[in-house]
Design brief:
With about 400 residues, this protein is of the alpha+beta class. The chain folds into 2 domains: about 240 residues, Bira Bifunctional Protein, Domain 2 (BirA Bifunctional Protein, domain 2, 2-Layer Sandwich); about 80 residues, Rossmann fold (3-Layer(aba) Sandwich), CATH 3.40.50.800. The chain is about 40% helix and about 25% strand. The protein has 15 helices and 16 strands. An 8-stranded mixed β-sheet has the order 1-5-6-11-10-9-7-8. A 5-stranded mixed β-sheet has the order 13-12-14-15-16, sandwiched between helices. A 3-stranded antiparallel β-sheet has the order 2-4-3. Helix 1 packs antiparallel against helix 5, helix 5 runs parallel beside helix 10 and helix 6 packs antiparallel against helix 9. It is elongated.
């Protein structure tokens, strides 16, 4: 038997009801906040992610599903199953010249992503993300709007006990000074860093702070290293932007805390970065991450455009939310005359009802047994009902049965 690949999962039955509910809540919350849905291709040119996500990230270096396509060598190309969706949305933003529309341009998305990593609870190799991206607004109000959209969605699915961690990575000038300070203080410990951090040291030293290796963590805790890591380095303009964001969050009564070690796992972030954690399972679990990426549009060939967004993993949310166990249909037509049952089913469906019937001609008792499991009511269509033109309707929760004289009344 051929089985599903490791790190992938079939979603069906009662489980899919919760997925549909999550998606419906996302659609309701984001559309009310004037985010329009965008659907981008599942695969893109590998170059898009190498340039956009950053070649110092684990995603680009270790986790992408990339392959060559095309026959002759001159026609061959490298494409990648998307490991995240921000780069794809930015590519669409540039390609379709959306920048010409009046800002802000606000989008939300849902779809599968792909990363070759070790599968674990809430994390698969094919996984799904819900996210938003906003373009055209440099002010901190945009950061607050995006965080508020995430909080509203998480509350809509019952995750109310939330903690937001914030940091500012500063502008390119700030980041350059901070990177140099990090490199200088870590230089004596370079040989003791893990292999990944040795590579990050050259390409993007800030990414070292995201390392979970125990030996690296011990180095970060050294007094002289920690003082540099936790230093206030952002310029006055970036500091003012961050303070404005805090004013918005205070005004919205959104709880937050400052985490100066928060850098996020992608190279394109600048200024605001954030993570939202939930205590739904008793211990904190990150359910959402995002931030500002003002340079990404220009980096990928567009005009300079401020932007901010977030993404959250649906598999992680599924672990945390209360599951929808069942959703019963309106009616099940019980009849030994399959054609008459089918005709009645179709008429009710045309009126917007959710209806099914037995296609196998089984005995009444078997049909009623199935109806009691999947439907709120059974419509009994026996010989008397067919010949005399009435319907018997049984409430399968209370057992009450009534006679209905016409299709219009039914």
């Amino acid at each position: 038997m051929v089985k599903a690949q490791r790190g992938t999962k079939d979603i069906f039955g009662e489980e899919v009801l919760t997925w549909q509910w999550l998606l419906k809540n996302a659609q309701d919350v984001f559309q009310k906040a004037c985010f329009s849905e965008i659907k981008t291709p599942i695969f893109e040119a590998t170059e898009l992610f190498a340039r956009g996500v950053g070649d110092s990230t684990d995603i680009v270096n270790k986790e992408m599903y990339s392959f060559s396509v095309g026959g002759a060598e001159k026609d061959s190309a490298s494409i990648t199953l998307r490991p995240e969706n921000t780069a794809g949305v930015v590519r669409a933003f540039i390609e379709h010249n959306i920048v010409r529309q009046s800002p802000p341009q606000k989008f939300w998305y849902f779809g599968p992503m792909f990363r070759y990593e070790r599968p674990q609870a809430g994390r698969q190799r094919q996984f799904h993300q819900i996210g938003v991206e906003m373009f055209g607004v440099k002010e901190a109000s945009a950061d607050a709007e995006v965080i508020l959209a995430a909080v509203n969605f998480l509350k809509s699915i019952g995750l109310g006990d939330l903690e937001i961690e914030l940091n500012s990575l500063g502008c390119p000038k700030c980041k350059a000074e901070y990177r140099n300070s990090i490199k200088e203080i870590l230089k004596p410990y370079l040989n003791d860093l893990c292999d990944d951090c040795k590579m990050r040291y050259e390409k993007n030293p800030l990414r070292i702070l995201d390392c979970k290796n125990e030996d690296c963590q011990k180095i970060f805790e050294l007094k002289e290293v920690k003082e540099v890591i936790l230093a206030d380095y952002i310029c006055d303009e970036c500091s003012e932007h961050f303070n404005q964001l805090i004013e918005y969050l205070d005004g919205l009564n959104i709880k937050y805390s400052r985490n100066k070690l928060l850098v996020r796992g992608l190279d394109y972030y600048n200024r605001t970065v954030f993570e939202i954690k939930s205590c739904a399972l008793g211990s904190q679990s990150a359910v959402c991450g995002g931030g500002r990426y003002d340079g990404l549009v220009e980096m990928l060939g567009g005009a300079p455009t401020p932007a901010v967004g977030f993404a959250m993993g649906v598999e992680r949310l599924y672990v945390l939310v209360d599951k929808i166990k069942s959703l019963k249909i309106d009616y099940f037509v019980v009849s030994t005359n399959s054609l008459e049952a089918m005709k009645l089913t179709q008429k009710l469906r045309e009126k917007g009802r959710v209806v099914d019937f037995d296609m196998q001609g089984r005995k009444f008792a078997k049909q009623l047994e199935k109806a009691s499991k999947i439907a709120k009511c059974a419509i009994i269509l026996g010989d008397d009902e067919i010949n005399q033109g009435f319907y018997s309707v049984k409430n399968l929760e209370t057992g009450e049965q009534v006679k209905v004289e016409s299709l219009e009344e039914l």
